Amino acid sequence: MNKQTTLNVRIGGALSDFVATNVGDDGSYENVSEYVRDLIRRDKERAEAEQFARLKAELQRAFAAPDSDFVALDADAVIGRARRN
Questions:
Q1: How far apart are alpha carbons 71 and 36 in whole angstroms?
Q2: Number of helices (H) and strands (E), helices first, in the chain?
Q3: How many CA atoms lie within 13 A of 31 on its CB side?
Q4: Which domain of life is it from (predicted)?
Q5: What is the distance between the alpha carbons of residues 67 and 55, in angstroms, rounded to a whole number?
Q6: Residue 74 φ/ψ, nearest 5 degrees
Q7: pLDDT by residue (tens digit) across 8-62?
Q8: What is the distance between the alpha carbons of residues 20 and 25, in angstroms, rounded to a whole number?
Q9: CA dihedral 1, 31, 13, 26 (to 10 degrees)
Q10: pTM value?
Q11: Domain limits, the chain
């Protein structure tokens, strides 16, 4: 799915000044589009890292639980539970 989206964003004041310091000859980015793409990528990476951290914490709690907390299930029980949900 390679759908492109065009965004139009209007900023002013301090935000505009901040963007200007990051774009152009003195900035880290050649243009505003490159800067915005990088910000979106970083935010995506942050969200994925948060999701991974939640999953990791959940797995750590599960593996740390005593064996008595676990219930043995056969395939029919698992399938039945999935059908009810």
A1: 49
A2: 3, 0
A3: 2
A4: Bacteria
A5: 20
A6: -95, 175
A7: 999 999 999 999 999 999 899 999 999 999 999 999 999 999 999 999 999 999 9
A8: 10
A9: 140
A10: 0.69
A11: 13-84
